[in-house]
Design brief:
The protein has about 375 residues and is α/β, with parallel strands linked by helices. It has 15 helices and ten strands.
Length: about 375
């Protein structure tokens, strides 16, 4: 099957899907500044898309500048994956990604995410049902045909009005994001199970479920998986603890992966994709640039997600507060803000300080802030 995966230059440097992080404003900022090779949405519950809060569809708001844009799904029921994939296809995404890596108790404990590593036959069935849905949609399956509620159909039609190009019925590729194992590293066996279903790509986070996000990502194990995957037509991306172009270059060279996903290294730093891809405009952003983008980010949030709680934005604002004197004070103020008007007042006051540009000191957001405020999936 021909797909965008076959046309991307290597190494592929993509934006990792992160729950509670890679929402529509975050992805749009990254598409405009960093231009990652691929953008992935936050993972979304397949059952919830079918009959839960209709606002779950907001996870699938995207701008054409993000293309290739891939929707990520999670769950444990093949039939729900089939229905959700039809919805993803109808929204014009370039691909669908199945989450088999989330370690959280509320996901893996219910058999989804990394919990699927323990049920390989179910995992294979989910991949096959997802692929069948893309084939059926390409051949004419409709939202009405799967019995989707009229209000959800109307919402999808409304979202599609923002597209700058018509939705084409075509076969879109199915990929998987997973981990090294459940409570121990079994990646050689697990990756063979996945390859039997021929996903177009496997993205591999270098930790087991039991590790959550602690310790160091095991890139040696990722390399062993890459050696197996490279014998097939499937591509493999590595993921875990990548915070600079030098780290990306080293991991690709050492492991033989086709590329990487950058997750936490992108928080408050869309410029990392310019750096890792050798963009002509690549540079270390000044504190003024960071805060200007933080302000733009808050305005995008208000415009794109008007029904969402402002608290969802606060962590994003905190990540931009680095590399200038007394960044911690502004960070504390921003994480207590409740409206864009407050953000504007705080940031504009900081930028107006007469010596702001001369007082850059390289102060970064503390590591614990990243660990506490984000759960990379």
């Amino acid at each position: 099957m021909s797909s965008f995966w076959e046309t991307l230059p290597h190494p592929i440097i993509a934006l990792a899907p992160m729950d509670g992080v890679t929402d529509a404003p975050y992805r749009k900022i990254h598409a405009e500044i960093g231009r990652p090779a691929i953008t992935f949405t936050e993972f979304t519950n397949v059952q919830g898309l079918w009959r839960g809060d209709i606002r779950l569809l907001d996870a699938f708001l995207y701008d054409d500048a993000e293309r290739p844009a891939v929707a990520q799904l999670f769950g444990s029921t093949p039939e729900d994956f089939y229905r959700a994939t039809i919805m993803v296809c109808e929204l014009g995404f370039d691909g669908v990604d199945i989450n088999m890596g989330c370690p959280s108790r509320c996901v893996a404990g219910k058999g989804g995410g990394a919990g699927l590593i323990r049920t390989p036959l179910l995992a294979q069935d989910i991949i096959r049902q997802t692929k069948r849905a893309t084939e059926d949609w390409a051949n004419g399956q409709t939202l009405e045909g799967i019995g989707l509620a009229p209000e959800r159909i109307a919402r999808i039609r409304q979202m599609n009005q923002a597209r700058t190009r018509p939705i084409e019925r075509r076969l879109i590729p199915v990929s998987v994001k997973t981990r090294l194992g459940f409570d121990s590293i079994i990646i050689e066996d697990w990756v063979q199970v996945l390859l039997e279903t021929e996903p177009v790509n496997i993205s591999l986070h270098g930790r087991t479920l039991r590790q959550m996000y602690t310790g160091q990502a095991n890139w040696d194990a990722i390399g062993r998986a890459a050696a197996i995957v490279r014998q097939t037509r499937t591509t493999i991306l590595g993921n875990g603890d990548l915070h600079s172009a030098a780290e990306v270059k080293r991991r690709v060279a050492e492991t033989g992966v086709h590329g990487v996903l950058i997750g936490r290294g992108s928080m408050g730093n869309p410029w990392i994709f310019q750096e890792t891809q050798g963009h002509p405009a690549a540079h270390r952003p000044t504190p003024r640039e960071r805060l200007t983008i933080a302000l733009n980010h808050s305005r995008l949030f208000e415009r794109l997600l008007p029904g969402h709680r402002f608290v969802e934005l606060r962590k994003h604002l905190s990540w931009y507060c680095r590399d200038f004197y007394d960044a911690s004070t502004l960070r504390r103020q921003l994480v207590q803000s409740n409206a864009v008007s407050e953000v504007e007042r705080l940031i504009e006051a900081k930028l107006a300080e007469p010596d702001f540009d001369e007082r850059a000191v390289g102060e970064s957001a503390p590591v614990e802030a990243f660990e506490e405020l984000a759960q990379a999936v």
